[in-house]
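Weekly structure sync, notes
Attendees: PL, DS, HV (note-taker this week)

Item 1: Protein kinase domain-containing protein
DS walked through the input record. Source organism listed as Rhizophagus irregularis. Sequence as pasted into the shared doc:
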Amino acid sequence: METLKPNVIIEWIPYNNLENIKYLTKGGFSEIYTADWIDGRYEEWDSKKQQLKRFGRQKVILKRLENVESANKSWFEESDSDNPGSTR
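Item 1 (cont.): predicted structure, written out as tokens:
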């Protein structure tokens, strides 16, 4: 059986699970925001309850991508920068 690694699970975070959303700066193809993720990421496997446990509230970075219709290689590189959890 393969070991479960909660830190490599990619999740979609619904907007209503974010609080304190604040504008930070504008990048080449995006606007950058910070926010508090209410539940936080998965942290570990609870073997008694047979479910993943969450880390709890944590800071996250949000990117609002612009000019999607004119995407090129640079756009994709910018959209993926500083995102160690994304796959290529």
